[in-house]
């Protein structure tokens, strides 16, 4: 709910502060602008064989060129890919790369919602969606996007607990991507993806978490061992009840035990002595004491 409110506020601010790109080439210029344009055309005609190498520019498939004539944005949008024409001395152009660019967000010291200080770094992937806005609306779209990504990382992680930060990385990355995309849309920048790379915890906190995990594992081990002992005692009780019902079964069990011992330890000699023979002597000893 908090994330949706933040995104709504950001989109409202963007709609209030965004200015549309105005094409000013058709506006009437001053006498100096007209004179400079005519002089540039004359100079191009006089130096025709050489001016061809200056007037014709080439942009690659992944580039676009934004042209300004006497400081005014030319109509027709961004040029490219291919060849475009500029007048010497009066035309100026800026190349914009449309390929996806990635950069690392420096590690940020973040105080989480449950008052734990962690260091988090991330990587952001973005590309230019509108070359005109990227040149006209912002002075340096790359630097501005980097600063905004670092600020957004701190703001988003400050609203999460440490457990959420460690478990819900994908959800946090998606939230950051949406916020950055809405914020950079007036600059002609499209944020494609945001990924959290690493979360560094303080050493004392790591030790405390390791101790807690070790204690939890020991507790589970004791419970499992106790359950095993309980099941084993039940099985032994059932076996004893079964053997007590048939004396021959007990004698066969004696023989199986002797067989297993003789196969493993051949030098050991065992003489089984039935308890029925020893019982009278035990009774005599107890009667004398009394």
TrEMBL record:
Signal sequence region: none
Name assigned to this protein: Band 7 domain-containing protein
InterPro entries per UniProt: Band-7_stomatin-like, Band_7, Band_7/SPFH_dom_sf, Band_7/stomatin-like_CS, Stomatin_HflK_fam
Membrane topology, as annotated: Single-pass membrane protein
Protein source organism: Chironomus riparius
Ribosomal protein found in the keyword field: no
Keyword Amino-acid biosynthesis assigned: no
Ranges annotated as spanning the membrane: 34-59
Keywords: Membrane, Transmembrane, Transmembrane helix
Pfam families to which the protein is assigned, alphabetical: Band_7
Principal localisation: membrane
Subcellular location: Membrane
Domain Band: 54-213
UniProt similarity note: Belongs to the band 7/mec-2 family.
GO cellular component labels: plasma membrane
């Amino acid at each position: 709910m908090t994330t949706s409110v933040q995104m709504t506020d950001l989109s409202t601010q963007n709609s209030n502060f965004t200015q549309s790109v105005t094409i000013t080439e058709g506006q009437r210029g001053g006498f100096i602008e007209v004179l400079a344009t005519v002089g540039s055309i004359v100079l191009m005609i006089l130096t025709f064989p050489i001016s061809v190498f200056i007037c014709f520019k080439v942009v690659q498939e992944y580039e676009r060129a934004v042209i300004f004539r006497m400081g005014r944005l030319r109509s027709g949008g961004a040029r490219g890919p291919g060849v475009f024409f500029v007048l010497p001395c009066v035309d100026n152009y800026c190349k914009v790369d449309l390929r996806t660019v990635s950069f690392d967000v420096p590690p940020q010291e973040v105080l989480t919602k449950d008052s734990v200080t962690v260091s988090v770094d991330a990587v952001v992937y973005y590309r230019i969606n509108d070359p005109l806005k990227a040149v006209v609306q912002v002075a340096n779209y790359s630097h501005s996007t980097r600063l905004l990504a670092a600020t957004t990382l701190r703001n988003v992680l400050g609203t999460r607990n440490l457990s959420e930060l460690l478990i819900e990385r994908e959800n946090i990355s998606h939230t950051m991507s949406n916020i950055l995309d809405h914020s950079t849309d007036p600059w002609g920048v499209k944020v494609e993806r945001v990924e959290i790379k690493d979360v560094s915890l303080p050493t004392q906190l790591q030790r405390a978490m390791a101790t807690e995990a070790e204690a939890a594992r020991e507790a589970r081990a004791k419970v499992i061992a106790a359950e095993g002992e309980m099941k084993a005692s039940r099985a032994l009780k059932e076996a004893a009840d079964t053997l007590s019902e048939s004396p021959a079964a007990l004698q066969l069990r004696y023989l199986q035990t002797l067989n297993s011992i003789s196969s493993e330890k051949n030098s050991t000699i065992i003489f089984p002595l039935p308890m029925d023979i020893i019982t009278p002597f035990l009774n005599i000893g107890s009667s004398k004491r009394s």
